[in-house]
Write a structure and sequence with these properties.
Blueprint (H helix, E strand, L loop, with lengths): L7 E6 L4 E6 L2 H7 L3 H11 L13 E5 L13 E6 L6 E6 L3 H8 L3 E5 L6 E6 L2 E6 L8 H12 L5 E4 L2 H4 L7 E3 L2 E3 L4 H7 L2 E7 L9 H20 L7 H4 L13 H6 L15 H14 E5 L9 E4 L7 E3 L3 H8 L4 H14 L5 H14 L15 H14 L3 H5 L2 H9 L10 E2 L2 E2 L5 E3 L2 H9 L20 H9 L8 H7 L15 H21 L19 H9 L5 H21 L14 E3 L2 H15 L9 H6 L3 H9 L23
Parallel strand pairs: 1-6, 7-12, 18-19
Antiparallel strand pairs: 1-2, 3-4, 3-6, 4-5, 7-8, 9-12, 10-11, 13-14, 14-15, 16-17
Helix pairs in contact: 1-2, 2-22, 7-21, 11-12, 11-13, 12-14, 13-14, 17-20, 17-23, 20-22, 20-23
Bound molecules: iron/sulfur cluster (SF4).
Iron/sulfur cluster binds next to loops.
Length: 669
């Protein structure tokens, strides 16, 4: 008997129309847990580096987290994994909502799509009955509209629908997969779904998921719920509102946007508006949000209500998620009313709320600087806000200049030439990043940005405070009930951290301490991504209800696998290393591991080199970031070493350019 997981994947070959229910190996669960871990194993085994992102041989895996579908609060993430057309590396994007638990209740842990359908289809999973259905009538429909039409067609209002919009159908490199109040957005996974000609994956499940030791498991769940309640009533003092509590990094309850609007960059990630937030803006934005927000909503089995339904005037109601609340507003240098309006179109089209606004702002900046001209943008309106709607339409249809911009700023700049590359200034590993430009190098963030392969909006931050507290009294109060730390040394790191002087940034925390902190933060994100836990209740906030000490208990009582902190750390290290191995095999090297040049004004090249060298060492990677023979052996990944040897990967010292050919044929503008 398998507990917490179902023990079966659904394998669908779209080229042949073949559907199989395949039993999985329980030993893989012990080694790689579930979700991201076991999906990384599938990608390693079955997608060699020669496979192009838009190839029938690429896999698109909808993986549920190991504990999804159990009563663990907030455990509802679907992890969608594939090879990204934008980065040409592994993409693994999470979505919340309701889809993953529903798939578990239908009797499957993953849906693995391979091949390519000859025409547009959708997949209907209704417990044991699985069909590939024609979707010709859904061609060109919005992602939200598609979900509604499918539910009506199937007469199944409770079906959960993960769908793409026009952007996915047209293989826009930053196309998302939309689902209820959530989306899996980063890395262009919606484009891979479009390439496979799959409009939606629809699921309804009515079975049970068993847990190994129910009474013990329920006790753990109750403790978490009590802690959430207590934390909601007792926010962490001394930090910004979104870090003081729990939940999504951008709750729809929050009105005070002073921190984001004054610290994040506007336009094409260049303009800081230090005095933007004043009483008048605060009042206007509050009125806007209050007038459009219909109700607050949660994901499956979570009391946090960090999403909302939004009804912009004259537009359909949609579900707003996370940071898209501000990204369009700030890219267009506009206001919240504009941002909430265009986000409705963007949700229907299915685009990443981080990349899409930056791509449009990039186009506007190129136009303002004469690199793109009226001849490239025939018919573009003169009004700023209308321009953004116009550009979004062109991009998702791949019309005219939109066909180039649809590949994201990195590839578009290469295609446009004429100096456009200098305007694609905010990328890491070829994908648009947080629009932040700061003054002094932050060594912790340097490491996260440089080495991160998750490439989500929060990178791998969380757990350790983002800045030192001013007084020792505040610091002592903070560490007093900081039981989430994996080791008490982190408390000392924080106690000694000063805003100014010898023990301040960028030389304190020391290189070794920074490496320890980043390693801890990353570990927690990777645990979440294997278990299916929302980062908002675990790896992202300070002092979360889930942590390294109670997770092993959840896994043991949930799955029956004998788990402790050491084994969990080792398992996480194993599949984290496997993610890196997939990317190394696809050409990623040290030269790709760098934050944007202009991310900080004051850079410290020697310190940055030492940080990277030391972190690579801690992770068991050589100076190119390639996992060593010894570290692979220690993790039981000798098969990775053998493959690296065969491909002569250890002799590539990073002088061969990593895959520099866009998936789309480069075109002259
Ligand atoms: S904390 Fe917010 S984003 Fe996370 S599961 Fe709960 S409602 Fe969803």
């Amino acid at each position: 008997m398998r507990y917490a997981e179902t023990g079966f994947n659904l394998e669908i070959d779209l080229s042949r129309g073949n559907i199989e229910r395949v039993e999985t190996d329980p030993r893989d669960t012990e080694l790689y847990l579930g979700g991201l871990g076991t999906s990384a194993k599938l990608l390693w085994d079955r997608v060699p580096p020669e496979v192009e992102p838009f190839s029938p041989d690429n896999l698109l895996i909808f993986g549920t987290g190991l504990l999804c579908g159990t009563p663990a609060t907030g455990c509802n993430r679907t992890i969608v994994s594939t090879i990204s057309p934008q980065t040409r590396l592994m993409a693994f994007s999470m979505m919340g909502g309701f889809w993953a638990p529903e798939l578990k209740y239908a009797g499957y842990d993953k849906v693995v799509l391979r091949g390519q359908s000859p025409h547009l289809v959708y997949i209907w999973i209704n417990n044991d009955k699985v069909e590939i259905r024609d979707a010709a009538h859904l061609q060109g429909k919005g992602a939200v509209e598609t979900a509604e039409l499918i539910r009506e067609e199937l007469k199944e209002p409770k079906a959960q629908v993960a769908a793409i919009g026009l952007a996915g159908e047209n293989r826009v490199y930053f196309a998302s997969i939309e689902q209820g109040r959530s989306s899996a957005s980063r890395g262009g996974i919606g484009a891979v779904m479009g390439d496979k000609r799959v409009k939606a994956v629809v699921v309804r499940g009515t079975r049970d998921v068993n847990v190994a030791r129910p009474a013990e498991y329920m006790q753990l769940c109750n403790e978490v719920l009590q802690y959430i309640k207590w934390r909601n009533e007792n926010p962490v003092p001394g930090v910004m509102p979104i870090l003081a509590g729990l939940g999504s990094p951008q709750e729809m309850k929050v009105h005070d946007e002073k921190w984001h609007t004054e610290n994040f960059m506007w336009g094409n990630s260049r303009t800081r508006r230090k005095d933007f937030w004043n009483e008048e803006v605060a009042r206007e934005w509050m009125e806007t949000l209050d007038s459009m927000r219909r109700r607050l909503i949660s994901c499956f089995n979570c009391p946090m209500t960090c999403g909302a339904t939004i009804a912009p005037p004259g537009r359909p109601t949609y579900m707003m998620k996370c940071f898209s609340k501000l990204t369009y507003t700030m890219a267009a240098m506009s206001d919240l009313e504009f941002g909430l309006g265009i986000a409705q179109s963007a949700t229907e089209y299915g685009v990443d709320g981080f990349s899409a606004p930056q791509v449009m702002a990039f186009a506007v900046e190129l136009y303002e600087n004469g690199i793109l001209t009226d001849a490239d943008l025939p018919g573009m309106p003169s009004d700023n806000e209308e321009r953004f709607y116009w550009l979004l339409d062109r991009i998702v249809r791949r019309e005219g200049i939109g066909d180039v911009l649809a590949n994201g700023t990195y590839w578009a700049a290469k295609q446009i030439g004429k100096g456009a590359e200098a305007y694609a200034h905010n990328n890491i590993k070829k994908i648009e990043q947080l629009p932040l430009k700061l003054s002094m190098l932050n060594p912790i963030y340097f490491l996260m940005y440089a080495t991160g392969e998750k490439i989500n909006i929060t990178q791998i931050e969380g757990q350790f405070p983002q800045a030192p507290f001013v007084t020792m009294e505040e610091r002592e109060a903070f560490v007093q009930d900081w039981f989430q730390v994996p080791d008490d040394k982190f408390k000392q790191y924080f106690l000694d951290w000063e805003p100014r002087g010898e023990k301040s940034m960028p030389f304190y925390p020391t290189v070794q301490m920074c490496c320890d902190i980043v390693d801890w933060q990353e570990r927690m994100h990777y645990v979440d991504d294997a278990l299916g836990m929302c980062a908002g209740l675990s790896s992202f906030p300070l002092k979360p209800p889930y942590h390294i000490h109670n997770y092993p208990k959840f896994i043991s009582a949930g799955t029956g696998i004998d788990m402790d902190e050491e084994k969990l750390t080792q398992a996480t290290k194993r599949y984290r290393t496997l993610v890196r191995a997939i990317n190394i095999r696809r050409g990623m090297r040290r030269k790709d591991e760098k934050p944007p040049e202009d991310h900080w004004k004051k850079r410290f090249p020697d310190l940055e080199k030492e940080l990277l060298d030391t972190y690579y060492q801690l992770k068991g990677w050589n100076n190119q970031g390639i996992p060593t023979k010894e570290s692979l052996h220690e993790l039981g990944l000798d098969y990775v070493f053998e493959d690296f040897e065969k491909r002569e990967i250890y002799s590539d010292m990073g002088d061969t350019p990593s895959q520099e050919t866009s998936t789309e044929k480069e075109k002259e503008v």
